Amino acid sequence: MLPVAFAVFTLYRFMRREKRDELWRLERLRQEYIQNPWDIKSFSISDENRDAVDEVEQRMERASATREYPATFTIWSQLLLSIVFPKAFQLLLASI
């Protein structure tokens, strides 16, 4: 059971890192289109860059809303059952 938990944890860390890197990349891309991105008072986006900034911001929202675990309840329950039943069967055989 420990190897499965480690594999799931490793997958989670990998996906969290990929998500963070993609958000950083999109943020840097967004800043390229904005004049004075750090000054809230003189912050401006030219009309020709508005569509590109909107698209990047939409992609950032989508990436932010994405969970790190790419699994559904069904997948998790199947994974759990594939671990619990064999382990219970093994313990049953060991007690005989």
The 3D shape can be described as rod-shaped
Q: What's the multimeric state?
A: single chain
| Class derived from helix and strand content | mainly alpha
Biggest sheet, in brief? 2 strands, antiparallel
Number of strands: 2
> Mean of the pLDDT scores?
82
Order of helices and strands: HEEHH
Give the distance, in angstroms, between the N- and C-terminal Cα atoms: 22 Å
Radius of gyration: 23 Å
Strand order of the largest sheet: 1-2
- List the total number of helices: 3
Q: Can you give the helix content as a percent range?
A: over 70%
Strand content: under 5%
User: Which consecutive residue ranges, at least 5 long each, have pLDDT under 50?
Assistant: none
Please tag this protein with its features.
96 residues, 3 helices, mainly alpha, rod-shaped
State the gist of this model:
With 96 residues, the protein is mainly alpha-helical.
Describe this structure in words.
By secondary structure, the chain is mainly α. It contains 3 helices and 2 strands, in the order H-E-E-H-H. It has helices at residues 2-33, 47-65, 73-95; strands at 34-35, 44-45. Strands 1-2 form a two-stranded antiparallel sheet. Strand 1 and strand 2 (44-45) form a beta hairpin. It is rod-shaped and about 75 Å long. The two termini are 22 Å apart. Residues 12-66 form a coiled coil. Keywords: Coiled coil.
